[in-house]
Structure formats: C-alpha cells, structure tokens
Amino acid sequence: MPIFTRFTETIDKKEKKRIVSVSVKPIVTDCTGTIWFTDLMLQEGAMLSGYVINTETVQKKYATGDEYAVSGKRFFNGVVRGSATCIIFNLGKTSTGLDWKIYPNQNMKAGSVSLALGAGAHKATFTESTNAGDELDLLASTRQCLKNGSTTSKDGFFQYSAAGDSKHPVTVEEKKSARLYVEFQEMEDGEIT
C-alpha cells in the first residue's frame, strides 16, 4: 500500500521584488523503491493550507466544540470604506473555506470590488458593476459567485482562512463603502474511509 507524506518548505525572497516565475525541480537521491510526486503547490504565507484537497487527509467539521473551536458556523460583520484588511479568527485546526457577502452602499464600477488573502494573493474580483443595496456572494462552500441570488462572473479564486488567524484585504470603489458578512465552518483533519 502506498504511503503519502506531505513535505513543506518556506521560501523567503532575498529582495522585495516582484516574482516573475518559479521553477521547481524535485530531486531524490540515495534510496530505492517507487516515488510519486503529487499536488506540488506554491502558496503565500508561512502556514500550509489544508483547504486544497490532498492525498493524506480530508477535512471534517467538528462534531462538538473543543476548548476553542465551535461545532456550528461562525460569522463576522464589518464595514469597509475604500479598502480595509479584515482579520478572520479561525480557531479550527486547519484551513477552511469562507462564504463572503458584500452589500455596496453606493453604485460601484465593474471590477472595483475585490477580496484577497494576506498581501493580496488568491484575489477575487467581481467583474460586473453594482448598485446600492445589491448583494454580492462569493461562496467557497458551494463554489458559487452570485449577484442578488443569480450567477455572476468573477476573476480569481474562492476565499479561505488559514488556521489561527488570516488577513483579508477587501477593496471597494474609492470613497465608497459596503457592509461585509463572512461565514465559515471551523474544520479539523479527518481520515479517508
């Protein structure tokens, strides 16, 4: 039976310059047997995300809360004017998908509403213009992007929160504001059955 092991490494840049490309060359020496490389992935930050499915573990919801995490869904509300960084406190033991709802208070241009992770990675931008009172949904749990309940387009990625806490830059059109709602289920590692 094959055994899969996850290895991680943090790569620090020597200079504060934009990265144009990355080359990865797996090297194995001084061993025998068969080796498979799966799920090679680069991501921003110092913590490994468990949100991307891998061959070793799966995520499961907490059946009951523990000392910190809860078994039900958690949510946070907020307001953003222009741009702000939201801190999401995920007390689960692994990363989890986020369901965002954004309610613009004024009309906004196409492409002016976006969400991201950390220093701007994993960015998602709503590509249509919005009116005051619209509801924009970016739902990782169901893989849907909605405007007023109907499918709409986006550029980018569904959002997730790393275990512990994670920063999420939220941007709306300059000098305008929106209400925010984010909901998620704290997760822990499960086993493949």
- Elements, N to C (H/E): EEEEEEEEEEEEEEE
Q: Count the beta strands.
A: 15
User: Which term fits the overall shape?
Assistant: globular
SS-based class: mainly beta
How many domains make up the coordinates? Answer: 1
Largest sheet: 6 strands, antiparallel
- Rg value: 19 Å
Distance between the termini: 15 Å
For the biggest β-sheet, the strand order reads 2-14-5-8-9-10
Question: What is the fold-level CATH name, i.e. the topology?
Answer: Jelly Rolls
CATH-defined architecture = Sandwich
Treating each run of at least 4 consecutive H or I residues as one helix, how many helices?
Answer: 0
Global mean pLDDT? 81
Helix fraction, binned, reads: under 10%
The top level CATH class name: Mainly Beta
Can you tell me the residue ranges where pLDDT is under 50 for at least 5 consecutive residues?
Answer: 51-55
Residues in β-strands, percent: 35-45%
Folded structure, characterized:
With 193 residues, the chain is mainly β. The protein has a single domain, classed as Sandwich (Jelly Rolls), CATH 2.60.120.860. The chain is 0% helix and 39% strand. It has no helices and 15 strands. The chain has strands spanning 58-61, 73-81, 83-90, 96-97, 99-104, 113-117, 121-126, 136-139, 144-147, 150-151, 154-156, 160-161, 164-171, 177-185, 187-190. The strands form four sheets. The chain has a six-stranded antiparallel beta sheet, with no helix packed on it. The chain has a five-stranded antiparallel beta sheet with strand order 3-13-6-7-11, with no helix packed on it. A two-stranded antiparallel sheet has the order 1-15. Strand 8 (136-139) and strand 9 (144-147) form a beta hairpin. It is globular, with a radius of gyration of 19 Å. The chain starts with 57 loop residues before the first strand and ends with a strand. 22% of the residues are buried.
